[in-house]
Amino acid sequence: MAEPSLKASVPSADAAVTESAAVLATEQLLPMYRMMFLIRRVEESLLELAESGKIGGAMHTAIGHEGAAIGMAAALRKDDYLTCTYRGHHHSLARGMDPQRAICEVLGKAPGFAKGKGGSMHFLDPSLGLMGANGIVGAQVPHAAGMALASKIRGEDRIAITFFGDGALYQGLMHETFNMAQKWKLPVIFYCENNRYSEMTPISRTSSVDEIYQFVRAYGMESIQIDGNDVEVVYEAVAKAAERARAGEGPTFIEGITYRLSGHMAGDLETYRSSEEIEMQRAYEPLTQLHQKLIDRGVPEEDLNQLRAEVEEEVQAAVEYALEAPWPDLAEAYTDVYQV
Amino acid sequence: MRKTTYIQAINEAMRDEMRRDESVFLIGEDIGHYGGLFRVTRNMMEEFGERRVIDTPISEQGFMGMAVGAAMVGLRPIVELMYMDFFLVCADQIFNQAAKMHYMTGGLVNVPLVIRGQQGGGKRYGSQHSASVESTFAQFPGIKVVAPATPYDAKGLLISAIRDDNPVLFLEHKMLYFTRGDMPDAEEQYTVPIGKADIKREGRDLTIATFSYSLLQTLEAAEELKAEQGIDIEVVDLRSITPLDMESVLMSVAKTGRLLAVHESQSNAGIGAEIVARAYEEAPYLLKAPARRLGMAPAPIPVSKPLEEELLPWKKNIKAAVLEMMR
Question: I need a labelling partner for B168 at 20 to 30 A (CA). Which of A3, A173, A214, B160 fits?
Answer without folding.
Answer: A173
